[in-house]
Design goal:
Radius of gyration: 17 Å
InterPro entries: MraZ (IPR003444), MraZ_C (IPR035644), MraZ_dom (IPR020603), MraZ_N (IPR035642), MraZ_sf (IPR038619), SpoVT-AbrB_dom (IPR007159), SpoVT-AbrB_sf (IPR037914)
Number of helices: 6
Distance between the termini: 28 Å
Largest sheet: 6 strands, antiparallel
GO biological process, one term: negative regulation of DNA-templated transcription initiation
CATH architecture: 3-Layer(aba) Sandwich
Organism: Capnocytophaga cynodegmi
Order of helices and strands: EEHEEHHEEHEEHH
Helix content: 25-40%
Subcellular location: Cytoplasm, Nucleoid
Number of domains: 1
Strand content: 15-25%
Pfam families: MraZ
Length: 151
């Protein structure tokens, strides 16, 4: 799997299921391998990982020394709410109720690709999170990317 691209608006049904957008489903590749959902580390949204990407994350986590309390505390919080999920035969995935409540997802969602994973947001919360003036984004871009020696 390569880099995931795109932002997709979807609706969630009464049972907590989302039909994956066709362009995203095509990028995900092997749907039978399963996926992982977890609480996002920095925002009130859900992180969606392919098994390949999840295994890479777990290699990093498992390299931490568990005899250091701070590391153990991090691992416990990082792993809280982690769920293995599958995509059904019609391309839907069920988001567990506890994750929907955590992300405060109601009916309309946004699935936003971030390279190696996808964030799943309540649509209103997503719009608030990404809103910034062009000037503010310009300053952020300069601060984050300006020193990389891009030509």
């Amino acid at each position: 799997m390569g880099i995931l691209i795109g932002t997709y608006e979807c609706k969630i049904d009464a049972k907590g299921r989302i039909t994956l957008p066709a362009p995203l489903k095509k990028q995900l590749g092997d749907l039978e391998a399963g996926f992982v959902l977890k609480r996002s580390d920095f925002q009130r949204c859900i992180d969606f990982y392919t098994m390949t990407e999840w295994n890479l994350e777990m290699q990093k986590v498992n390299s931490l020394n568990r005899y250091i309390k701070e590391n153990n505390d991090f691992i416990r919080k990082f792993m809280s709410g982690v769920k293995l999920i599958e995509i059904d035969s019609v391309g839907r995935m069920l988001i567990p109720k506890d994750l929907l409540e955590y992300a405060q997802i109601d009916k309309e969602i946004v699935m936003s690709a971030l390279g190696n994973r996808v964030e799943i947001w309540d649509k209103t919360a997503y719009e608030k999170a990404i809103y910034t003036s062009p000037e503010d984004f310009s300053a952020l871009a300069e601060k984050v990317m300006g020193g990389l020696g891009n030509d």
